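Troubleshooting: if your tokenizer reports a length mismatch, compare against these two reference records.
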Amino acid sequence: MNLEPHPDRLFPSDPTTRDIARKLYSLVKDEPIISPHGHVPPQWIAEDTPFTDPTSLLITPDHYVNRMLHSHGVQLSELGVGQTEFTEEQSRNAFRILCANWWLYRGTPVKYWMENELYDYFGVRVRPSAETADEIYDQIADCLQRPEYRPRALYKRFNLAFLATTDDPCDTLEHHEAIREDESFDGVVVPTFRPDKYLEPGREGWAELMGNLSEASGIDTTTWAGFNAAMENRRAYFKAAGAISTDHSHRDPGTARLSDADAERLYKDALAGKISSDDADALRRSMMYEQVRMASEDGLVMTLHPGVYRNHHTPSFTKYGADVGCDIPLKTEFTDALQPALADFGDSENLHLIPFTMDETVYSRELAPMAGFYKSVFIGVPWWFIDAPEAMARFRGSITETAGFTRTSGFIDDTRAYCSIPARHDVSRRVDSGYVAKLVAEHRLEMDEAAEAIKELVVGNPRRAFKLDGVI
């Protein structure tokens, strides 16, 4: 079978609404992509090193691809995960595994993303299957030998206007410095301050992390006050390097502040490795309160995506380490969790707080009313497990009547799979066009209003929520 994405894919099936969706999509389909949260390594752009093979580019870093195959008995190591050496034959075999199991992805966004990538960027015209695996692999491998498939060339080809990476607070950010100083590259790539593990005082090795933080900041971190001063120092370092945001992911988004005396006591316990689980959670929530305070002072946008059981499959974590796709969503509560910080900083002129969730029950009940009141709160769009067409449509229906079109973040691709960025953003633009078109078809919006609304969703919202005016 030939591989050719339909031009009306993801648009409503009703002819009248579909025609409106086409018109709205045409207004935004060629807008530059703003990607304010993702996991593309900055050294790819800094060094512009050619990609070595199709598997390491398209399969190994893509959790969505890997977890589906794992659920059908494929070992992650067969897909290159956790492997420091992976031969050309192993790479080819991983691609054969993917193509032979292509039927597993029916009905998933992975199928849509990957088919768009293969068709639009690698010229593939046959559907993945056991029979076509080697043909597709060879075609992609041939493309990767050409200069137009190096990271910087793809940045331009993808029509990227802004790309944020995810970086450790103690990172020297040398790759970002190299990008900024290279006048031959005119894109915008910035770091993101990601302090999660430094805000988990119950984790193994946390005291050593505090030593690293002290060394990086030049500030003594043996006290609660010193810890916060060191965090402020590193946030300022990142901001000076171009960062526009900080990113946070914990089991819950709690921001309950401890007294300085209680925080100091628990901090000392944590440094000594004697803190209980409950006390570690209490100290972490106080640390998160301080991060909101810092954001209200330094103006870095604060994104939250809590509610995930990290490394749920212990054997995979033990064998391959963290961040290999075995994370599972949890129920999440925001109203009580964020109240302490919003009570103190919710009216701040500097604070932009963007909560994301995979618990769809909180969209209409908690996040939409919150964003519909607090000028500092923007709702994070569907991401991770729910950055899929049906979930995106449910999201718009859940939040728009309360928060309108202007209180969301803009689409977040959150991907390690570089080539999937334009396909993911295209899904969002098509689904949003369909949602807005429905309002026009039902005579709830005039066409001129709909045209303005779709522009806000794609262009205005990410610029507003992430404070990008003057940056791009």
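Reference record two:
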Amino acid sequence: MNAPAPVAALAPTVKLLIGGEFVESKTTEWRNVVNPATQEVLARVPFATPDEIDAAVASAKDAFKTWRKTAIGARSRIFLKYQQLIRENIAELAAILTAEQGKTLPDAEGDVFRGLEVVEHAAGIGNLQLGELANNVAGGVDTYTLLQPLGVTAGITPFNFPAMIPLWMFPMAIATGNTFVLKPSEQDPMVTMRLVELALEAGIPPGVLNVVHGGEAAVNAICDHKDIKAISFVGSTKVGTHVYNRASLAGKRVQCMMGAKNHAIVLPDANKEQTLNAIVGATFGAAGQRCMALSVVVLVGEARNWVADFVEKARTLKVSAGIEKGTDVGPVVSAAARARVEGLIERGVADGATLELDGRNPRVSGYEKGNFVGPTVFSGVKPGMAIYDQEIFGPVACLTGAETLDEAIAFINANPNGNGTAIFTQSGAAARRFQEEIDVGQVGINVPIPVPVPLFSFSGSRASKLGDLGPYGKQVVLFYTQTKTVTARWFDDSTTSHGVNTTISLK
């Protein structure tokens, strides 16, 4: 993690949320929140002090005493109100998101909407947080389970989805009866804070939701804090592995959704136009800054002749600021991100891949200072090349080929990551073989970004995920609750005593 840079003293400050109050940090460390299309400084974000982080956790711990006893219907009604407020303010939320993160306004609305779906799911907590009952498992004995909240929980979220991923985390944690400490990305926290304001307006009580800001020190403080019982993380593999190891050693329950290298298989029987549209959109949308971006395309058999068509489709995409109408590819989030992507493009050429389309240094009228990289396409990509082995997190497509479907499946399964994958075909038999044999958590069949709706859980696998339970869906209810099993027998005056029983039997 980078140290905070010099900041613009006159920019507005992003506040902490502690005990239901938006608090000005007393820190001496600040970072600029910068519009990636213009380099305008939008705000200053504080790196919270250890005392401020402790205060946020203490507030959450104190609020848990009453929140855990709040009726499940009352919790549900807060999130019914919250989803209404998000819908009413979605245009404002998208505008804030675009200004600080760079993605297009339609994509920003999509970011908010996919988080809104989880809020709607949280509103149904009464049907989700159900235990089990077995009546009369032995003579007069009943056994049942309770799903009880853990206590103070925490979330660490990335820059690329500053609305959706916080909404993956705190609504389900709070709906299940926990309290929450959120650490948003220090690069673009403004839309997250607006969502937090709306959450308080919806009725979340003081202390139930708290927010701290910062970098590595804040992450470590969350991992180490004795009063935090569970942590949810989305971000890079490097940081996620660190969080998982450190927090697990501290006795916490942890889930980490991490890096990826997502592949799409294209069979020659696929609908060409639909397939190219889908893959180009999934590869270059959000400037490639998605953990579910389709960054590797495996063209099978005669589909290997589609390289030129792919390049021409990519060439049609408009690169500009996210607020400009018709923009397909906005800027990457920072100048450092741009330099990293451009460096990997250079490495791709040096490693022997064929640069079919070079997106470096695009001319973007009116936004000459922006962090722009245009759609870039390599063919002939192989394992061992930096552009294949690393997650580029930019608008760069890696094309490779295979003779058969089996060869393509083996190629994907040899990659250590397992976040998402897709196949494009009109063959049901091929699709079924793919879904059975591919070793990846989330599978799309003619669907380029197979992120499930909240009825199901995000199910990345292998090096893309640490922890057994995923965010949202049924799995996250188990993640945020402790199962308590109760075995009960009630006696009345007619019950016959059989004396002392020293066996384990319940008979």
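Descriptive notes for reference record two:
- The mean pLDDT is 95.
- The two ends are 60 Å apart (CA to CA).
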